[in-house]
Amino acid sequence: MQRILIATSNSGKLRDFAGAAAAQGIEIASIPHFSSLPHVAEDGATFEANACKKAEFYSRFVPGELVLADDSGLEVDALGGAPGVHSARYAADDPSSANADDAANNARLLQEMKNTRPDRRTARFVCVIAAARDGQTLQIFRGQAEGTILDRPRGSGGFGYDPLFYFPAIQKTFAELEPEEKARYSHRGAAFRLFLNWMKEFRDH
């Protein structure tokens, strides 16, 4: 079984990647001793910049290995695209500081949108994956999922904003989906499928 290393210790992200990889017979693993490695400041202005920065940095710790890093977040139209690249830190006092917890981020989003009409609650999840080896980005992949923001959470699975993100095509929030089902519809699943297609061609050449 082929193994892909992911530059994250976020258990939710690892579950998402594992769900998308399961059908392909690919094992997903965090970089060994990832929590003891230096922290990379995610200070890029775009998802692409942050994903590349992380993938290049952490791939240097595992020479010769293909390393994936993603940056992802929620873009809410009524909030001008916020929280965007600050999604994980939305409720933090300083957006350049450490991540806030999911409950706090969700609470702030609900507060910001409390007077927003139902027809103006459109949003999308965005995920950009960068694939790097030995400090060099080889390719980037972008996936999106279009939905709406509910006025209260639904579901106990997933992580981040999943309980508030309603996906109309299946009439469920992302927090109401099993990992394999979420991979079929999610931004991370879409970006990861693009990576798998690229990797197949990469191996064949």
Describe this structure in words.
- Helix 1 crosses helix 5.
- With 205 residues, the chain is of the alpha/beta class.
- The chain is built from 5 helices and 7 strands; from the N terminus they run E-H-E-H-E-H-E-E-E-E-H-H.
- It has a 7-stranded mixed beta sheet with strand order 2-1-3-4-5-6-7.
- It has helices at residues 11-21, 47-59, 102-112, 179-185, 187-204, and strands at residues 2-6, 26-30, 67-76, 122-133, 136-149, 165-167, 172-173.
- The two termini are 20 Å apart.
- Strand 6 and strand 7 form a beta hairpin.
List the helices and strands and how they pair.
Layout: E1 2-6, H1 11-21, E2 26-30, H2 47-59, E3 67-76, H3 102-112, E4 122-133, E5 136-149, E6 165-167, E7 172-173, H4 179-185, H5 187-204
Parallel strand pairs: 1-2, 1-3
Antiparallel strand pairs: 3-4, 4-5, 5-6, 6-7
